[in-house]
Design goal:
The chain is of the alpha+beta class and 200 residues long. The protein has helices spanning 31-41, 53-64, 69-79, 83-92, 112-116, 119-130, 173-186, 194-199, and strands at residues 104-109, 143-148, 160-162, 166-168. Strands 2-1-3-4 form a four-stranded mixed β-sheet, covered by helices on one side. The protein is globular, with a radius of gyration of 20 Å. Bound molecules: FE2/S2 (inorganic) cluster (FES).
């Protein structure tokens, strides 16, 4: 039965796709990170302490790699706001990981410019090389493969971003295979930030 006089809203319309975060281990910032966050909070008026919520979430991710419900609760206590306010922000921004990820998170942009320039082939070839589907992490915990929305570098499509920070532009299946091999051999030294090179 519908609650609306005209529209036939059925049960399906009330169902939410929202996935609750895994509770995880009890979380506390390390003393260094707590001090760092306190310093950031001090930049805002005391009643605007919650303005530091993005920084607070980045510090959680830096410390344990991804967000958990326990960590969000700790952030809420730290910033003196409600867990719901923290979750609103955490669930909105895609750069926060909601589950464990590998050491190198490869995120292929799938929006129009990248899609037209071959992003699907790049994702497919990365998946084949790593033995992963989008959203998966390999058994060694080294690589996670994800898709992302427009990174604002459409003129250099397709773009692959590594660890939310390092971009590899005009990516091809071949260049991505080299990137994976290079990451395996040289680790973070392979993340040269090639977009800087192109823009110079
Ligand atoms: S569509 Fe991929 S960077 Fe814009």
């Amino acid at each position: 039965m519908s609650f609306h006089p005209i529209m036939p809203y059925g049960e399906g319309h009330h169902r939410s796709d929202r996935v609750l975060l895994h509770k995880g281990e009890p979380f506390n910032y390390t003393p260094e990170r707590a001090a760092q966050l306190e310093e950031i909070c001090a930049k805002y008026p005391p009643e605007r302490r919650k303005s530091a919520v993005l920084a607070a979430l980045y510090l959680v991710q830096e410390q344990q790699g991804y967000l958990t419900a326990s960590a969000l609760r700790h952030v809420a206590e730290f910033l003196r706001i409600t867990p719901a306010e923290v979750e609103d922000v955490a669930s909105y921004y895609v750069m926060f990981f909601k589950a464990p990820v590998g050491k190198y998170v490869l995120q292929v942009c799938r929006t129009l410019s990248c899609a037209l320039a071959g992003a699907e082939r790049v994702t497919e070839s990365l998946g084949e090389k790593l033995g992963l589907k989008v959203g998966e992490t390999d058994a060694s915990g080294m690589f996670t493969l994800l898709e992302f929305e427009c990174l604002g570098a459409c003129d250099r499509a397709p773009v692959v971003m590594v660890n939310n920070e390092h971009w590899h532009e005009r990516a091809t299946p071949e260049s991505c295979a080299r990137l994976v091999d290079d990451l395996r051999q040289r680790g973070a030294a392979a993340l040269t930030g090639c977009h800087l090179h192109i823009e110079r």
